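Database export, one record per block. Field names are fixed; values are copied verbatim from the stored entry.
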Amino acid sequence: MLQIQSIDDLPSDTLKEQFREERKPDYALLIKEIQQLKPSTQGFQAQLVRLKRRFEEIAEIDFFDCPLRSKAEEDLYKAEHPAETRRHAGKGRLSKSDYQNRVWLTRPRPGIDRVSSAWLIKRFIDAGARFEFGSDPAAHADAVPFDMYQPVGFGHEGDKCTFEMLSARFGVTETKVRLIGQAIHDADLDDEKFGRMEGIAINQILKGWAKQGLHDEELLRRGMDIIEGFYHSIG
């Protein structure tokens, strides 16, 4: 016998967001533990196995893709491959002329950071850029990887997202691009560093399209169109 006192008639999107919010503290704590784990730590492998198991437990009940999930997954990969560093030419400014008419590779189902990074690449770095999707950079030897879990190509470094790193490495300093970067940072890293909400809204739209079954290419195209509109909306 079940007695119901009341029913919350909440919209589906609101309920999903509540599920995502419930998982945020779990992922945040996990990320903190992963970042504190060093190869020199006593019992490193045992702790890494424990953290991977904990990630799987959280992911199993993360039904609606909490935004911190990809961050936790990326940090786990870095912890498991400590000898690897992100491999591209040095750490200084790069020449755009070395990256013309290239194939750029990123993970399937592009979200806010990958979509905005593709827009940045096409508009400010490589006008002839073509984009492909895959999980293994080794299978695309001639492509330039970006925002991959493996530490190759261009991606997160420190507290900066891929969009921010690409802007810095290629000297894209326009004020409007910097403001877009702040919005992308807040949406992708979910740390409210800049207090900008535009990227969060764009990310939700991208997630909605993904759930409609759009192909990766169409997701990327639509997302880049939104970022272009965002760019022109900034006074």
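Remark 1: Helices lie at 12-36, 44-60, 69-80, 112-125, 162-169, 175-189, 198-211, 216-233.
Remark 2: The chain has a mean pLDDT of 89.
End of record.
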